[in-house]
Predict the 3D structure of the following.
Amino acid sequence: MILVVDFGGQYNQLIARRVRDLNVYCEVVPYNKALAKVKEVKPKGIIFTGGPNSVYGDKSPKIEKEIFELGIPILGLCYGMQLMAYTLGAQVKEAKEREFGKTQLKIKKSKIFKGIKDDSTVWMSHVDRVDSLPQGFEKIASTQNCPIAAMENKDLNLYALQFHPEVNHTEYGKDILKNFVIDICAENPNWTMKNYAQRAVEEVRAKVGDGKVLLALSGGVDSSVVAKLISRAIGPNLTCIFVDHGLMRKNEGDEVEAAFKDSGMHFIRIDAEERFLKRLAGITDPETKRKIIGEEFIRVFEEEGKKIKAVDYLAQGTIYPDIIESGLGDSAVIKSHHNVGGLPDTVDFKEIIEPLRMLFKDEVRELGKELGLPDYLVNRQPFPGPGLAIRVMGDITKEKLDLLRDADYIFREELEKAGLNKEISQYFAVLTNNRTVGVMGDFRTYDYTLALRAVKTTDFMTADWARIPYEVLDKASNRIVNEVGHINRIVYDITSKPPATIEWE
Ligand code: XMP
């Protein structure tokens, strides 16, 4: 295992991702728990992340000197480099010029730079820099504004870089990380989802024994993979409750049922459409819609859960980014409670199990494939919990939902046929509550305007509208108007986020 010690850098997750991409397992640990964790798990290597502080700040994160004396290779990045230098008695100073963006790096021969060019592009983002070398260290790289852009202590296997190898803009970033993890730390690249699947099934089996597990299955990627994994481990002792709120996309409810109904678990599909639509009738405010759906979901889940006697565990699809984002360590527990978010007080259970808690999203997808889930579930794009309720503007009726379902299906089908689904992160249709005049044959129409939305994003916090070829939009537009009734005008949303959001409500 490689341990990534988090000093509050914006790229902490990315570093862990990159290490996992090398098929090496790693975990992120907050700096103030790092030494204890190192002693506990004895990692083969340690990576210090960057961070926004200056080592001289009163409240800036520090690290015990002892960590450098354990004989474990360490790679310090950005703040991690400065902290290594500072802790080992060297000087860190504010640079005259802040260095941000792409910079040319000149290197000297070093194990960490094996196979990379003498002159290459790296990504810098720093104010402070290391000004003198700690004892026993050598300078191994420089840039125009940073005379000591990298340093090493070969004997102690300590390496440090002022730039960010985890960022794509660093030309040889992946090679540098590989040199550290595979060559210097001598890690075995054997972290694969195939191995994980087997281990995770055994772990669940060992933990749960012949206890009973309850899971709210939404049909999204995470809960589907959890369902498959646990059912493989304990079969009929897993009960999945799939609350079909009638706000899913076309065929989605049936697809979820088809994927799970014969899988050996106890699968319950609750058709709650009528109940949800009744409560949503006449509601136009998006936040009120969300609240009603959340409450109703809990109520249905609770009613069904109560019918199952003696539940021991509640399973959840929490994944690693949820845990890292909620602050790591003890906060993982807080997140569990938060995830349960008022979930069944009346359904008693001993403990929560989260078999995906150490996995990133694409690892979850890979695991799903490994466990034999169909592609349409594994590659599903994110879909909001409140479903189509927030894609039908204004008040919701079954008729409007059906119109939207058909139109959305055609749009998705055309994008997928054009092979654009791999590069577009989220794509869907929105039924506006705007009606306009149109003409069809010899008749005047007065029908709905449909909006198409497609965005590219990595984090869903910001997003760019997708530049879909006109021909694809044209095909989708023609088909929707011809094949779906009561839509006579189609617009394409060309706003990014910000200033817009991805969803319309
Ligand atoms: P926005 O519209 O805020 O969406 O740019 C960002 C991402 O979050 C999804 N989203 C939701 N997911 N419940 C959810 O589970 C919600 O109420 C909700 N609202 C938005 C949205 O689909 C996008 O992926």
Q: What stands out?
A: Residues 2-184 form a domain with the Rossmann fold fold (CATH 3.40.50.880).
